[in-house]
Write a structure and sequence with these properties.
Layout lengths: L4 E6 L5 H6 L4 H5 L8 E8 L3 E8 L6 H13 L11 E4 H13 L10 H15 L5 H20 L9 H13 L7 E4 L3 H12 L5 E5 L2 H8 L6 E3 L3 H6 L3 E4 L20 E5 L16 E4 L1 H17 L1 H50 L4 H31 L3 H12 L4
Length: about 425
């Protein structure tokens, strides 16, 4: 059986400018494959941080790495020489282990992040729908998805917030409880502000307003869910309407002082993730106001990442277990064609002999004929039961080749 191959590049090996140029899809690759392609099975995992091809190809291909490299290059209309030095190439057990680590979140930019498992699942479903996978890649991705689910169910690698935005939201939840019906204000539409919005939206929150120097930019962001948009000159009103404020504006001076915040009776959580800070420290003394800055967030973030890193050995043990199960499954796949051929020949013999016997017996009632047919099927199944179990057992012990040769000779089966 040809080995599993993986060719890819990610945030560890290639700059974002290059990853953007190579962010192709399975459809883009298969569209330029010839009818007589050497590709037997193929799946593509593409995210903002990686693009990876998982493939099984014909054994006659002399340079599989170059073959897959050219597939990726042609699909993106990029010269292979421009990215050859940035790719990694894995085969067999190494490729299997890599995908399981990816699905479990061990290879993510943020350790244990949950999105990658969904992306692996999407890659698998796309390949299923495009009919580009067979038994090997199908089993590989199912194993990876199962390993990813186990990692998150049996360990806490994904339980602690591990980004500034996630920590900000977690701190707000600690004070206010669930945020589903809370009014949230994000001040700033730059990179940090957009990341905060993304984190909020991924949690299903929709009561979100945005304030920005350019109101039109704030409106463009809130249009997706119909939230309010404010200019920075409207901050007193915007803050008065909010229960949670996340501020991330690039400014050399604080934008929010004690006078910006009207007296209030309900709690207000303010998370200042800007450097320099957007909120004057005096705000922390106001009644019902809880203020966090980047130092507070960093302490929590360090604790969260340390907690996630402590879970790595437990996740790796899950991967070892799942890799072993996959190896057994792959070995059994190797003898499936032989078992199928053996049973097909036995079935042909059974049908021929049954037809001959029925002719000699003459007219039979339907019930008797059914009993005779069932008897012939039962004899064949019982005769083949032990050889089938033995072949699967020997396959799992890496002895499949020798036994397969013997069985083919004994049963007169073609290679």
């Amino acid at each position: 059986m040809p080995p599993i191959l993986c060719l890819g590049l990610n945030h560890h090996t290639a700059p974002v400018a290059l990853r953007e140029r190579l962010s192709c899809s399975l459809v883009a690759i298969t569209a330029q494959l010839p009818a007589d392609t050497a590709v037997l099975e193929l799946a593509v995992l593409g995210t903002c941080n990686r693009v990876e091809l998982y493939a099984v190809i014909q054994p006659h291909v002399a340079a599989p790495k170059l073959f897959l490299l050219n597939l990726l290059a042609q699909a993106n209309q990029v010269d292979p020489a421009e990215f050859m030095e940035y790719v990694y190439f894995m085969t067999g057990d190494t490729a299997v282990n890599h995908l399981l680590r990816v699905a479990a979140g061990l290879e993510s930019l943020v350790l244990g992040e949950p999105q990658i498992l969904g992306q692996v699942t999407d890659a698998y479903m796309t390949a299923v729908n495009q009919h580009t996978i067979g038994p090997v890649i199908n089993a590989l991705f199912k194993t990876a998805i199962r390993a990813g689910k186990r990692a998150r169910a049996e360990t806490t690698i994904g339980s602690n917030p591990a980004s500034v935005s996630s920590v900000a939201i977690a701190l707000a939840q600690q004070t206010l409880g669930p945020l589903d019906h809370r009014q949230i204000l994000v001040i700033g539409a730059g990179q940090m502000g957009r990341l905060a919005l993304k984190a909020l939206r991924q949690r299903g929150l929709s009561h979100i307003a945005v304030a920005n120097r350019t109101v039109a930019r704030a409106q463009a962001l809130t249009a997706a869910w119909g939230g309010p948009a404010y200019g920075l000159d409207e901050l007193p009103t915007a803050i008065a309407n909010a229960d949670v404020v996340i501020t991330a504006v690039s400014s050399s001076q604080p934008l929010i002082g004690s006078s910006t915040i009207a007296p209030r009776a309900r709690p207000l959580v303010m998370v200042d993730i800007a450097v320099p800070r957007n909120v004057d420290t005096a705000v922390a003394t106001l009644p019902h106001v809880r203020l966090y800055d980047v130092d507070d967030l960093q302490a929590t973030l360090d604790e969260s990442l340390a907690a996630r890193q402590a879970e790595i050995p437990y996740v790796e043990q899950i991967i070892i277990e799942e890799t072993g199960l996959f190896a057994t499954q792959l070995s059994e796949l190797a003898v499936k064609p032989l078992i199928r051929d053996m049973r097909r020949k036995a079935e042909q013999i059974r049908e021929t002999e049954l037809e001959r016997t029925m002719r000699h017996l003459g007219d039979l009632d339907a019930q008797t004929a059914a009993h005779i047919k069932h008897l012939s099927q039962s004899i064949v199944n019982k005769l083949l039961h032990e050889p089938t179990l033995l072949l699967k057992q020997k396959a799992s012990n890496n002895q499949a080749d020798a036994y397969a040769t013997a069985v083919r000779e004994l049963f007169g089966l073609p290679e």
